[in-house]
Write a structure and sequence with these properties.
It is a single chain. By secondary structure, this protein is an alpha+beta fold. The protein contains 3 helices and 3 strands; from the N terminus they run βββααα. It has helices at about 30-60, 65-75, 80-85, and strands at about 5, 15, 20-30. α2 (about 65-75) packs across α3 (about 80-85). The radius of gyration is 23 Å and the shape is elongated. The two termini are about 35 Å apart.
Length: about 90
């Protein structure tokens, strides 16, 4: 949500939303404002992570994997691709 924090005349913080053009939180201490921001970023990060993983899992034909290998080959050469593929062996991890 597009918003900004402002200092209230009483010394507390408020968050003003440019979506609803009104305050969505008022009379917050600095630690309360930090917690509000941290919680919102944590929610967004969880959602973004879930989406990224879902996109990776949806690529059942390996197109994204092959695109990555192609980029590595173009930038670093075929030896690097071979090295990366060696990490697919169960006893090794990248």
């Amino acid at each position: 949500m597009p918003s900004r924090f402002v200092m209230q005349p009483n010394g507390f913080l408020a968050r003003f939303s440019t979506v609803v053009d009104d305050f969505t939180a008022m009379n917050m201490t600095e630690s309360e404002a930090e917690k509000l921001i941290q919680d919102e970023y944590a929610e967004r990060a969880k959602h973004d992570a879930e989406q990224a993983i879902a996109r990776a899992k949806a690529d059942t034909n390996g197109e994204r994997w092959n695109d990555c290998l192609s980029t590595i080959r173009d930038i670093h050469g075929p030896d690097t691709v071979s090295e990366r593929l060696s990490f697919l062996e169960p006893e090794q991890k990248l």
